[in-house]
Amino acid sequence: MRFVIIGAGRVGLRTARVLREEDHDVTIIERDEAMIRRARTQSFTVIDGDGSREAVLEEAGVADADALGALTGDLNVNFTACMIAKHHGCRTVMRIDEAYREGIYRKYAEEVDEVIYPERLGAIGAKNALLGGTIRAIADIAQHLQIVELTITDEAPVNGYSISELQLPGDATVLAFGKEEQPLEIPSEDESLAVGDRLVVLADFDVLSEVRQLLVGESSSEAATAIDADTTTGGLN
């Protein structure tokens, strides 16, 4: 698959690396010279320019891309880029920071395919948002509480368990369950977990790594990377 990533800060560059490790084609847009050099040193194709300008996006190949990740620290750049990419038929994933209020989140969530908080989800979460993958952030309930939807994989330790046998950390609880391609419902204790099933979980940020390991099957290092604080400096980083 082909992806365009806007921003070569810690969020964007880590996301690009994760995608490349899975043999996806990634082009980065950045306008900070130091970050451009760093990304090119890591052998990424980098377009020097403003990711909110259509000509720059077209140079990066947005017309042929499967998805665009607007992962800068600038909300206006991210939103503009997503609107242009949407016009070209791309899946759009837009970064916003935790400082933004719920009303802002809802406003932009209606316009793009997915809104992410990379400070919470990290590079793995951003990658999964771009792919439409196994982990999806739904909402932040409080400073340390997040609702996420996770899809059971072959590697998940709980694959084959029933809901009653599922033992999540004490600071996490299942809110809803859905069989593959079926609507989400209130879970029954007798339901068994199979590949493709989805669980909506309310969890404290401190136990998200453990929840991800159980339900998605990530290794401890992958899960730790996924929730690493991928903070960036200001501007377009």
From TrEMBL:
RCK C-terminal domain mapped to chain residues: 135-217
Every RCK N-terminal domain range: 1-116
Protein name: TrkA-N domain-containing protein
PANTHER family in alphabetical order: POTASSIUM CHANNEL PROTEIN 2-RELATED-RELATED, TRK SYSTEM POTASSIUM UPTAKE PROTEIN TRKA
GO molecular function, one term: potassium ion transmembrane transporter activity
Role this protein plays: Part of a potassium transport system.
Keywords per UniProt: Ion transport, NAD, Potassium, Potassium transport, Transport
Gene3D superfamilies cross-referenced by the UniProt entry: NAD(P)-binding Rossmann-like Domain, Regulator of K+ conductance, C-terminal domain
One GO cellular component, as annotated: plasma membrane
Superkingdom classification of source: Archaea
